[in-house]
Amino acid sequence: QVHLVESGGGLVQPGGSLRLSCAASGRTLGSYSLAWFRQGPGKEREFVSGISWTTGSTNYADSVKGRFAISRDSAKNTVNLQMRSLEPEDTAVYYCAARRTIVAHSSDDYPYWGQGTQVTVSS
Q1: Interval 57-70: pLDDT, tens
Q2: Considering only CA atoms, which of 10, 6, 7 is closest in space to residue 120?
Q3: What DSSP designation does 53 have?
Q4: Which of 70, 75, 96, 122 is 20 to 30 A away from residue 26, measured at CA?
Q5: Among 15, 41, 25, residue whose Cα is nearest residue 79
Q6: Is 85 left (phi over 0), alpha (psi -120 to 50) or beta?
Q7: Which residues contact 42 (CB under 8 A, 6 or more apart)?
Q8: Which residues contact 81 (CB under 8 A, 6 or more apart)?
Q9: Are 68 and 81 in contact (CB under 8 A)?
């Protein structure tokens, strides 16, 4: 099993920045991919960004390209999501997820999930 714990959420004004972190434990992540999903009020859970632990290749939803950056720290078994130019539409609970092999965009493809961290963008 892989245990995931998110942190770093909070309240920011539009245009502000936040850095989310996800700490993984229980397994080495050499053959895994880690991803961030989010679920806003009244919305379906959607893919935000993902990263392959093997290659470091990244994926982003169109809505966050150029604003969010995902990165990994293999030594610490953590994945980060640097968010800038935040908009009210980014308000959601952000979840960290893990799966074997390649990054996928469907939440159904991820067996391991964290508890989520709230991000609220409001003036």
Answers
A1: 999 999 999 999 99
A2: 10
A3: T
A4: 70
A5: 25
A6: left
A7: none
A8: 19, 20, 21, 22, 36, 48, 49, 68, 69, 70, 94
A9: yes
